[in-house]
Amino acid sequence: MFGHFYNEGMRKMTVAFGQVFNNIQIKRTGSDSTIQSIRVPLAYAPKEKFLVRLDQQANLDEREFAITLPRMGFEIAGIEYDGSRKLTKVQKFKSTTSNSGVMNFNYMPVPYNISYNLFCFTATAEGGLQIIEQILPYFQPDYTVTINVIPEMGIKRDVPIVLNNISYEDSYSGDFTTRRAVIYTLNFTAKTYLYGPASTQKVIRETQSDLHTDLPAATREERITVVPNPTSADADDDFGFTTTISFFQDSKNYDKTRDEDV
């Protein structure tokens, strides 16, 4: 039943989430000017990895390198189906191919909420406040990013990223040589969609409907035929349709025929 396909939907969502926080800076100022401007490094890693690196050099009088603060990290915290955003199953996204008689299509995506945790590590309270203040004003409580989900089909999706809550830690206890770490943890939810495999089908060039006044009836009363105008048109053309309505007195003889251009 299941076959291999990979639209990189979750990967693209994770990359887009990281890009939102990829330009955070901390500035250290003197009496009347900026002494140092630091772009805060960002990496995909769990919180425990940073804490272990900090614990490896708890005392500042040791010469071995541990980890440089400030730093930021993020990770996926959970994935959950969101039934409140469920869409119809039968609607399709369509795009043309190099073959004018064939088109690609994909059914409506499935809504999922992806939870992310963003960690901010600084050595001072001032540094942590600078990072947080560059983030919070943009989330009211959500910030929307645009993701090019399936480029070959021209499918793009606006995904809101919702800020849920913020927690704060300050490891200030200990002697004067103990390394201090101020940690902010921000929890987000990205309301994204996941797409299934793409398929192909032939382009419909003509539709025909037979109408009856009574069912079951072997004799049709009317036939409606719709074809594109011109018949050689493809999806990129600005074309109309020619509708032919044929009336029947019986199953063999026409009563009249009417053509309408739409």
Give a quick rundown of the structure.
The protein contains three helices and 15 strands. The protein has about 260 residues and is mainly beta.
Question: What does the model show?
Answer:
With 262 residues, the chain is mainly β. The chain has two domains: 9-200, STM4215-like; 205-261. It contains three helices and 15 strands. It has a six-stranded mixed β-sheet. Strands 12-13-14-15 form a four-stranded antiparallel β-sheet, with no helix packed on it. Strands 5-6-11 form a three-stranded antiparallel β-sheet, with no helix packed on it. The radius of gyration is 30 Å and the shape is elongated. The two termini are 42 Å apart. Residues 58-66 and 251-255 have low confidence and may be disordered.
CATH architecture group name of the largest domain: 2-Layer Sandwich
The value of Rg in angstroms is 30 Å
Q: Using the coordinates shown, work out and report the CATH topology of the largest domain.
A: STM4215-like
Can you identify the CATH superfamily of the largest domain?
Myoviridae tail sheath stabiliser
Number of domains: 2
The N- and C-terminal alpha carbons lie at a distance of: 42 Å
User: What order do the helices and strands follow?
Assistant: HEEEHEEEEHEEEEEEEE
> Helix share of residues?
10-25%
Per DSSP, the total helix count is 3
**Mean pLDDT rating:** 79
* Poorly predicted regions: 58-66, 251-255
Main sheet characteristics: 6 strands, mixed
According to CATH, what is the class of the largest domain? Alpha Beta
